[in-house]
């Protein structure tokens, strides 16, 4: 409406917008978009339908921030565009399942499982009152190293669940998301197999020799080198995804490699906290978790070791 009243300074003629006529913008631009939103509201069944079956506000908003939005919709709007039919989910697919609890709180579950495993291994040596007294024992140390294998197994499980639950995001326009899922799964499976096999080889050599021979120690060193690389990669991934300065740097770059390696998020992309606030927040949770772990070890796990051993040693018990 505004453009129709103006003159093009280059040609001297009145500007002719792409959509002209009575209520042109309303009928050609606004109404088709409204119809899409209205259809999704109906599909949501008042918000109780599974989120993977309809597009919510975030999905549509993320779509309009993507490159394929302009490639598909064109201008004037192409009524045959997939967006007006079914473009699917664009940012995140929420599936209501038990496994989604593990996937959504993966780092919490990882921390609790690894702590429980390490605490049981250390507390199993009852002659030591405090955990730091048991750690100098070489066999205890190597048993605790099994947590690294558990870590890789849980990472593989999380990777598979992510692919299964987020497969609805993959399309011809977002093939790199599918490629990232495949590469992540292959990488996780490779690390799990490698760490598991190299750890088993330590005990095979140790039990075969009956002692910690030079060959057994050699295999231990090899496993430690592999575990160090695994830990270093995990630490780097944590820094890239959670430390604000790294995350903001990647988000602002429009590199194609960033789209393959990381999820492109535009909603609230610059709302991350600063390094000082992030450090204070992290220190708070470190203190909380240290207190929680000390309580769990001395008052929950350690007191249960002896009763557990007694139950395992019971033989020929007649139940009534």
Q: Can you offer a commentary on this structure?
A:
This protein has 320 residues and is mainly α. The protein has 2 domains: 3-84, no CATH class; 98-313, no CATH class. It has 13 helices and no strands. The longest helix is centred in the C-terminal third of the chain and has 39 residues, at 275-313. The termini are far apart. 10% of the residues are buried. The mean pLDDT is 82.
Rounded average pLDDT:
82
Question: Given the structure, what is the number of helices?
Answer: 13
What is the chain-wise order of helices and strands?
Answer: HHHHHHHHHHHHH
Radius of gyration: 28 Å
Q: What is the end-to-end distance?
A: 89 Å
Q: Helical amount among residues, as a percent range?
A: 55-70%
Number of strands: 0
Structural class: mainly alpha
Global morphology:
elongated
Q: How many strands, which pairing sense, and closed or not: the largest β-sheet?
A: none
Strand coverage percent: under 5%
Q: Residue ranges: pLDDT <50 for 5 or more in a row? A: none
Number of domains: 2
